[in-house]
């Protein structure tokens, strides 16, 4: 999958603006769930997850990329993705099923996870325990049938009584936890997430089109605290450091690859070619297009 070429979408906040006619949304008591069925041969994009996301594939392939990690989730599989990360995704249907992709995703808020852990009286994981931000788990026939039984709720969401989504979600989580000790550990750990390293957050999202506000949120800090902590580490402002790092990468990509100026612009986290070209010339003294002609000596 290529680096993101479109604006990063923040979900579930932007669900109402980005959902298509092929998607059906349940939103009750602050919870969100999506059922989607479509035909696709490679639709892709970039998401910034504001809540933990649990996605089940009923048919087709949903590929998730986070840094160097690549996870292709297929039928009878689910993926748990921690909140506060930016991911790239690609939706692919199977050729033998007319490229149909059918999946259900749930957004898990911290208070729901806390209630689940308390209701189940599960032991809390150690604060020192760390799990990967993305994990793929199997879904057996019993859970698969349960997921299929949820689909009628998406047909008439206005008739679903308040609180039912939460009840069904908790029932689903208990069903998974009873079958999968690894998944239970993941759930007991994600709601204890502490502040993340500034360096880790910046490295993971350097070439994603995220704002400083997004990076601050990703690190578990306010914007002012993020700027202060960043300057203490890098001895400069985050805006200046990130812009210079992106421009250095862009110069290297222009010189070493056949990518166009526009492609390099988007692949290094810039969202406007004109702004990218001006910033590039200000830093290096020549426009990016010069490297696609005869590089200066």
From TrEMBL:
<dbReference type="InterPro" id="IPR054015">
    <property type="entry name" value="ExsA-like_N"/>
</dbReference>
<feature type="domain" description="HTH araC/xylS-type">
    <location>
        <begin position="196"/>
        <end position="294"/>
    </location>
</feature>
<dbReference type="InterPro" id="IPR018062">
    <property type="entry name" value="HTH_AraC-typ_CS"/>
</dbReference>
<keyword id="KW-0805">Transcription regulation</keyword>
<dbReference type="InterPro" id="IPR018060">
    <property type="entry name" value="HTH_AraC"/>
</dbReference>
<dbReference type="InterPro" id="IPR050204">
    <property type="entry name" value="AraC_XylS_family_regulators"/>
</dbReference>
<keyword id="KW-0010">Activator</keyword>
<dbReference type="InterPro" id="IPR009057">
    <property type="entry name" value="Homeodomain-like_sf"/>
</dbReference>
<keyword id="KW-0238">DNA-binding</keyword>
<dbReference type="Pfam" id="PF22200">
    <property type="entry name" value="ExsA_N"/>
</dbReference>
<protein>
    <submittedName>
        <fullName>Helix-turn-helix domain-containing protein</fullName>
    </submittedName>
</protein>
<dbReference type="Pfam" id="PF12833">
    <property type="entry name" value="HTH_18"/>
</dbReference>
<dbReference type="InterPro" id="IPR037923">
    <property type="entry name" value="HTH-like"/>
</dbReference>
<keyword id="KW-0804">Transcription</keyword>
């Amino acid at each position: 999958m290529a680096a993101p070429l479109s604006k990063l979408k923040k979900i579930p906040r932007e669900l109402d603006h980005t959902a298509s006619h092929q998607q059906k949304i349940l939103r009750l008591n602050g919870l969100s769930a999506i059922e989607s069925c479509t035909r696709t041969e490679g639709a892709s994009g970039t998401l910034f997850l504001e809540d933990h996301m649990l996605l089940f594939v009923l048919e087709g392939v949903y590929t998730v990329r986070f840094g160097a990690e690549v996870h292709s989730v297929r039928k009878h599989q689910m993926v748990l993705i921690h909140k506060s990360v930016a991911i790239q995704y690609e939706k692919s249907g199977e050729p033998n099923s007319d490229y149909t992709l059918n999946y259900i995703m749930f957004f898990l808020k911290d208070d729901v996870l806390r209630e689940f852990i308390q209701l189940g009286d599960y032991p809390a994981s150690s604060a020192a325990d760390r799990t990967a931000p993305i994990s793929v788990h199997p879904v057996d026939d019993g859970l698969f049938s349960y997921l299929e039984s949820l689909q009628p709720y998406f047909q008439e969401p206005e008739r679903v009584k308040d609180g039912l989504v939460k009840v069904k979600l908790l029932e689903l989580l208990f069903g998974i936890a009873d079958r999968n000790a690894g998944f239970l550990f993941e759930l007991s750990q994600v709601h204890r997430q502490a502040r993340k390293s500034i360096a880790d957050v910046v490295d993971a999202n350097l070439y994603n089109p995220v704002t400083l506000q997004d990076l601050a949120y990703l690190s578990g800090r306010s914007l002012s605290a993020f700027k202060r902590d960043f300057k203490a580490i890098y001895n400069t402002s985050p805006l200046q450091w990130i812009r210079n790092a992106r421009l250095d990468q862009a110069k290297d990509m222009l010189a070493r690859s056949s990518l166009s100026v526009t492609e390099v612009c988007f692949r290094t986290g810039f969202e406007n070619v004109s702004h990218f070209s001006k910033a590039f010339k200000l830093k290096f003294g020549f426009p990016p297009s010069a490297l696609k002609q005869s590089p200066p000596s």
